[in-house]
Amino acid sequence: MAGSEEHQSLLGDEGESSTSREPDRPLAAICDPSRLPHRVVVLVFMCFLGFGSYFCYDNPAALQTQVLQDLSLNTESFMQLYAWYSWPNVVLCFFGGFLLDRVFGIRLGTIIFSVFVCVGQIIFATGALVNRFWLMEMGRFVFGIGGESLAVAQNTYAVNWFKGKELNLVFGLQLSMARLGSTVNMNIMGWVYNQVKGLVGKPGYTALGGSLMIASATCLFSLLCALVLAVLDKRAEKILHKEEGKTGEKIQLKDVKDFPFPLWLIFIICVGYYVAIFPFIGLGQVFFIEKFNFSPAEARAVNSIVYIISAPASPLLGFLVDKTGRNVIWVMIAVVTTLAAHMMLAFTFWNPWIAMSVLGVSYSLLACALWPMVAFVVPEHQLGTAYGFMQSIQNLGLALIAMLAGAILDSRGYLVLEVFFCACICIALIAVVMLYFVNYVRGGDLNQSASDRARVLKEATSDAEIKRRPIKLTEGDLARLAPMSAFGLRNRYLSRLGTQLPDHCCTHLSSLAHRSVLK
Amino acid sequence: MAAAVKTLISGVFVILFCLLFGFCQSLFRGDTFKRQVTMELNPGSTGPHLGVNLLHIRAVGRNDTLHFLFCNQGAPTLLLVHTNVSSSIVTVNWTLFLARNTSGSLKIEPESSVLYSTAVVFSRLWEYNDLNDTADPTSGFFPPYELQDFIWSPLNLSDMTALLCGANATSISGSICFQLSVFEMGGRGLSWPHLLHTANSSQVKVWLDGMLPRANNSRFLLELQAVSESYPLSRVEVHQSIDDEYTPSVFKVFQWVSAPNSISDILGFVQWKPVAYRHSNPSLEDAMPCRHSDPHPQNSEAMAASSGVIRAFYSQLKPFGLNVSFGLAGDPFYINTKFLSWTVLVGIGSPPTDSFSPVVITIMAIGLGTPLVLVLLGGMWVCMRKRTMESTMTYEPIN
């Protein structure tokens, strides 16, 4: 957050200089790319750009009972639908930004990814219509190729149009749209299915395919938005003579060997934590019906509460974490409360609204505290690689665990499944505890309070001046300082200088636009 | 600091100890109590018995005996008699028994040793046409299959199980089968729903295989009657269990019990999980929920007439009956697979209750224990490091 504010003020002048250029002939406010009314119009399209993808991502979860029954699937094959979404993103997390910047350009790239989303969803629906499960899996794969990269494109557009202006607000709005898409999907698809069932006359794969086809209308709508955006962006480029937006993401796989130990711990936390959230939400509906005797509508509602809560909670908790610092402690709190929520679901019959609400809050807290930590342990030029790698292994974990979760449920039931999720979170917890001590011993700044960080930043600025002069360290000095490689030193100084943590420190930027963070 | 560490250590040890205790308890809790089980077909029979098979299973404990009697004369019936001596025997007057008109032709001797007896009769199979897929068995009933009129095959005995199959005299294909299993000691059923059993119980698995339904939207109900002299089985209790490890996605256990005063006084029970399966070799998606009606008192004369064993053993009886219906609205109809199986446990004493499996307890213990141990070790190490750092620190930082 702090980074982006700074960013805003730093780049404010630049933005104004480009807008101050008068167009040749006067335009109506709504048509003038340099004026707010026009940007509001663009913002509307920008927000709906991702709506379709978010709406359709959780279609299987929203229609879990119907999918299982109409296609007579077991849970393991059902979870394949989620696994197939994750597979392409194991690779694409590295190349999405590259493709947008170097190969397609933002406009064409956005359209291409929207087409992938749209075609993927249509293949998925067709698969259901003709009762071919492999076709549905293929649809999810194609959908996955587009889905995550589209989110990156959406953010790049936002930066391009709103940098130095209303950027934070725009990010907030996009975030809310994403969550709105997920929530609406969870709560409306059951109704849509029932309507289609009424038309078809009987439940079955035809009704399922029909309702998924209707859902794909949202993707078509998003594609339309992508086309309109491309036209508007092209027009703005001509009028304002500005450049096409770039994600600015650099990925170098050879950096992986330089990743410090705390970063690997952060990866473990990320994988261990998120695999206990997304596959669980995918399987949630039937769980609430079977264990807590909920009606399908109520089960869908309680399943979507995580998304609903995270909409208002994310900015609030983000503010809290920014103001207090001590990220490791916050992550620890988030992991422990999530563990408590899962244990509640596993070992009690308490109303799941309690556990799911706790899960929603702790999930948002984790996103706010965990993702910025990467920026503290990795120098800026490696941030793109680190985030790309993090999301890649997260997707790998999601794909594998989704399949495993389905298999566990089929053979051993919900209790063992929940215990398995608890075990995953326990692994994340072990990693957090280790991270705390490693950070403590190394004197890292992951767990500093915000005021300490500000003080260090101040000192570092003056320190950096001194550092420029070559100083021979005495042996005593060396002994008192923790032994550090040149890499480590640079790393620390770079990350202490506030300007070195710009875009990525703010939880919204480019590579952070992926689903897990956004939701 | 030291005090805090001490309390922390003791806290961790208490938790670990509790987990360990729970673990051991669950490992060794599974009844070590054993019974000596012997099976005997048609006890004391010398002459011809007109295709009637009476299976007597004797399960001898330390100082008591359980007699299971399973018979194909009339409606399939399982009779359980609990005696307080290990030498009680069954005597059958075969002439009277086959005539099916007097009580007392089947006796447990010595009679004074009988503590409790109960019988379960599978009396009817109902079929209804669920036109609107509401799974509400109130209308559309076909005439029920009277199981006493079915033609029953001889009992097919194998190790600790007996199989009884029968078919409607008029039907062309398909059958209804009952498989009785008895147990020497506690354990779990081998196939779903993996019911937990003790040496004091027996398991009956009922299945319909290939019987043609009379309508495309047919669903079935099975009528059960429970008989006993005193303390009839008059109440169905539902137990919620968080543990669905052995029967995935089923969180309830129903037990139909005799209800004298309190739970501890339960004399006999019929226990089942509300799940039936649509395939002979089922997986999770073949599971189908069941419901049951409340138990109602039944006509004792009609009851006795329908089952040979009941007539022969009981002179006065208090039968209660209930229906178990298979499938809820939206579940596939019987015609899709033409198979339906359901399992029930019949026993004396308190019904067995599930507890966490060692796998669950081990995972939770390791999962929760490791971070605690790490916090503990890390905390101690940091304390020690601090102390040594303090003692070796020779100068302060310049600023």
Notes on the protein architecture:
The complex is a heterodimer of chains A (519) and B (399). Helix content of chain A is 79%, strand content 0%. By secondary structure, chain A is an all-alpha fold. Chain A folds into two domains: 30-248, Growth Hormone, Chain: A (Up-down Bundle); 256-453, MFS general substrate transporter like domains (Growth Hormone, Chain: A, Up-down Bundle), CATH 1.20.1250. In chain A, 55% of the residues are buried. Chain B has 399 residues and is an alpha+beta fold. Chain B has helices at residues 2-29, 94-99, 300-306, 308-313, 358-392; strands at residues 36-41, 54-60, 65-71, 77-83, 89-92, 106-109, 114-129, 145-146, 151-152, 156-158, 161-167, 175-182, 187-188, 196-197, 201-209, 218-228, 233-240, 252-258, 268-272, 275-277, 287-292, 296-297, 318-326, 339-348. Chain B: It holds the Pfam family NCU-G1. Chain B: It comes from Betta splendens. Chain B: Required to protect lysosomal transporter MFSD1 from lysosomal proteolysis and for MFSD1 lysosomal localization.
